[in-house]
Amino acid sequence: MNNPIKPIPCKILEIKKETALEYTFKVETDIKPDHGQFLQLSIPKIGEAPISVSAFGDGWLDFTIRSVGKVTEEIFAKRPGDVLFLRGPYGNGWPIEQFRGKNVVVIVGGTGLAPVRSMLRVFAEDPGFAKSVTLIAGFKNEEGIVFRGELESWRDKFNTYYTLDRDKIDNWNVGFVTEYVSKVPFGDFGDNYEVIIVGPPPMMKFTGMEAAKCGVPDEKIWVSFERKMSCAIGKCGHCRIDEVYVCLDGPVFNYTQAKYLVD
């Protein structure tokens, strides 16, 4: 019987620098997650951290990681050929089949792009999957842009609004993502659409409020919580909010429930 919490050693195939603080690690493994799920990455005697899968394929997974603590600093010291320990996948991912044939609106802030990246690849590679895709992506500044090459390639496939908080660069807007929600033609979609919001908690809160102003009902909004998880199997209570265990019931939630999940 498989042990659900036993880490498996996996070789690092490639490391790509995204920004000064974020790197993407391609890891060799046969683990097959759903879009939006996460794994626990660990280093013996150091610790472990929950990381969303930012892309996957046959025999590999991508993890886009920000260096913010002891575990991630140790991961950043690794090189291709070194080993990371993985366990998972865990949690509920995006209900991607529910998005088929619909007008999908994806609104992300910063590294919130990582948990939706694999799904956006599906939309880009299979133009018939979604009726249309609108991508609103915001970053603090130019130095914080992740997956820049893919963002540029998606301009030809999606309706895009890319924005920086204050920096001015060619072909990018200035301002917060909340300022661009009203540009989405929800009235033209009828009832055939879904909205995905991922980013820091304040960004998701205020973006959800802007969507509500545009007439979007809560049940059409989906979010992913980037709350710190520990055991990932609902035993330690570290991620518990009231009666909800984020690691089991999330990290993807419908907004009808997510709007009440406040620490």
From TrEMBL:
Residues annotated as signal peptide: none
UniProt domain FAD-binding FR-type: residue ranges: 5-96
Gene Ontology BP term (one): pyrimidine nucleotide biosynthetic process
Residues the entry annotates as binding [2Fe-2S] cluster: 231, 236, 239, 247
Cofactor binding comment, as recorded: Binds 1 [2Fe-2S] cluster per subunit.
UniProt keyword annotations, A-Z: 2Fe-2S, Iron, Iron-sulfur, Metal-binding
Needed cofactors: [2Fe-2S] cluster
One function term, GO molecular function aspect: flavin adenine dinucleotide binding
Name the UniProt record assigns to this protein: Anaerobic sulfite reductase subunit AsrB
Source species of the chain: Diplocloster agilis
